[in-house]
Specification:
alpha/beta; six-stranded mixed β-sheet; about 15% strand; globular
Length: about 260
């Protein structure tokens, strides 16, 4: 029951983060209509903007935690960010999508609200973000397989359980991360309070085929001859038993 309640808090907090973003947008609009002398100077470069975000993110609570480090996972160093208002809160590991779309860079607004209730862990998976930058891409490329990501997740959660002294954690998987997260949850259910899937992948090839059919129908309805031509050139898209190339996915998504 407690796990279900906290899972609900996660969803409420995510909704709250969106509402917070809307509120900030309204505040920005009001500020823009305020005389220049009455508002603080806006940052004029990246360094200034980064300083503002850094100050907004500062953890000041007595039991708070704010760590970034590289952890040895699956034979390579991988970037991990750990943040929360109270280290006594349960741990929530975010498994990002892609592969190759780390969420740590947008955590300052996307998961800030969750830090009030959880110790939030963002992880740049192999081939992504800061993990990509400090490793040899040619050496990592052969390891970019689903099984390796699942094993990496298991190693990371094992490390978090020891490092943060938690018997169980929450795992939230988004898109590609939902596949990895669900497979991990099947293998180590006793390590979890709960698993939460967002944009949960169940049958990826079928999802690709349906997305393609929708895009083609929309292009035809709009009379977009170029889009129709590009999409028809991909047929048969996501054919059973055949992998979909990244090039074809890029075309389907673009249209």
């Amino acid at each position: 029951m407690r796990a279900h309640l906290i899972s609900a808090v996660i969803l409420i907090a995510l909704t709250g983060a969106s509402a917070w973003g809307d509120q900030m947008g309204n505040q920005t609009e009001r500020a823009e209509n305020t005389p220049a002398a009455a508002v603080a100077a806006k940052p004029t470069d990246r360094a200034g903007a980064t300083a503002v975000v850094r100050e907004l993110r500062r953890i000041v609570t007595p039991h708070g935690v704010d760590r970034t480090e590289f952890v040895r996972i699956g034979g390579i160093d991988q970037f991990v960010s750990i943040r929360g208002a109270d280290r006594r809160n349960p741990v929530l590991l975010i498994l990002h999508g892609g592969p190759g779309f780390p969420t740590a860079p947008i955590a300052w607004w996307s998961t800030r609200a969750l830090e009030e209730y959880f110790t939030v862990v963002h992880w740049d998976q192999r081939g992504s973000g800061k993990t990509y930058l400090i490793n040899d891409p040619k050496a990592v490329a052969p390891t970019m397989k689903p099984e390796r990501f699942i094993e990496d997740t298991e190693q990371l959660v094992g490390w978090l359980r020891k490092e943060l002294a938690k018997e169980k954690v929450f795992v939230l998987g988004t898109s590609w991360g939902s596949y990895v997260g669900l497979e991990f949850a099947r293998r180590k259910p006793d390590w979890l309070h709960a698993y939460i899937g967002m944009g949960q992948i169940v049958n990826s090839p079928e999802s690709e085929r349906r997305g393609y059919a929708f895009a083609l129908a929309a292009a035809r309805k709009a009379g977009n001859a170029q889009a129709v031509s590009e999409l028809e050139a991909l047929a048969p898209y996501a054919a059973p038993g055949k992998p979909v190339s990244l090039k074809d996915i890029a075309v389907e998504r673009k249209v």
